[in-house]
Amino acid sequence: RKVTALLNKLTMQKFDSISDQVIAWANKSEKEKDGRTLVQVIRLVFEKAIDEAIWSEMYARLWRKMMEQISSKPIAGGQLFRKYMLNRCQKDFERASRDEAAKAVIRQSKEGGTEKVALYSDEYYAAQKAKRQGLGLIKFIGEFFKLQMLTERIMHECVKKLLGNVENPEEEEIESLCTLLTTVGASFDTPRARAHMEVYFSRMKELSKNQNVSLRMQFMLQDMIELRERKWESRNA
Fold first, then answer.
1. How many CB atoms are located within 10 Å of the residue 125 CB?
2. Is 191 helix (H, G, I), strand (E, B) or coil?
3. Distance of CA 82 to CAs 42, 68, 212, Å?
4. Where is the MIF4G domain (predicted)?
5. Which residue range is the domain that position 190 belongs to?
6. Are residues 120 and 78 in the same domain?
7. Is the pLDDT of residue 127 over 60?
8. What is the number of domains present in the chain?
């Protein structure tokens, strides 16, 4: 509860003092054989980060600071962070991409199937939460990459997975792809990755003209293509 209260107060202005207190809590694991306090703190930070995507850069910075400063007793803190991050990202990423029930509920509500799905039903809220956290996870993954905590290879795997269904893609896949590339584009689009990026954006151009893709997603893809043409500078820059 104390850690949750600290995370609720975390801002960029209070980052140093609050993050030091969170790390002090995590370091209570020094006296534990199984490191359960550390595992609990890691889980709380991760949950908070994917639920509040607007602050994902701040939570990624907190994660890196914790990796660097957590005590190595009784278990290697930094090592545990990396292992948890990779396992959790992979598990949540795969679950989000196959959560057909959540997708069906959102799709029905968009198609006006209110007789089957009450707009404010528990299923609808659960589906919206799953979608929000899925996009939050994608943004968090992108922020990890920008802080050099995830490799380029893992980023390519994520993009390829999201672009795997070119014929009849899910909206969630396209939105996740655009969220990821908006987050990492400037760091990811290097001369070394150029060949891969050309293939990705060629597929995205095809998708932006695909009749199976909703107009909203077509516009989102078009915005991404234009963002890259502007060398990842936003229109307002």
1. 12
2. helix
3. 10, 11, 39
4. 1-231
5. 152-236
6. yes
7. yes
8. 2
> What six digits make up the tokens of 151?
């490799």
Using one digit for the tens of pLDDT, what is the confidence trace for 5-18? 999 999 999 999 99
Contact 65, 78 (CB under 8 A): no
Residue 111 pLDDT more than 80?
Answer: no
Q: Give mean pLDDT, residues 204-226.
A: 93
User: Does this model's pTM top 0.85?
Assistant: no
pLDDT at 69 over 80: yes
- Compute CA distances 232 → 200, 224, 228, whole Å: 15, 9, 5
**137 and 182 co-located in one domain:** no
Residue where a domain stops, chosen among 126, 150, 174: 150
| Amino acid identity for residue 72 in this structure | S
- The predicted pLDDT at position 104 comes to 54
Could you tell me where the DSSP H helices lie in the chain?
A: 2-9, 15-26, 36-51, 56-69, 77-98, 100-110, 122-146, 152-162, 171-188, 194-208, 215-229
> Does 132 lie in the same domain as 42?
yes
Confidence of residue 121 (pLDDT cuts 50, 70, 90): low
Taking alpha carbons only, the member of 33, 29, 31 closest to residue 78 is 29
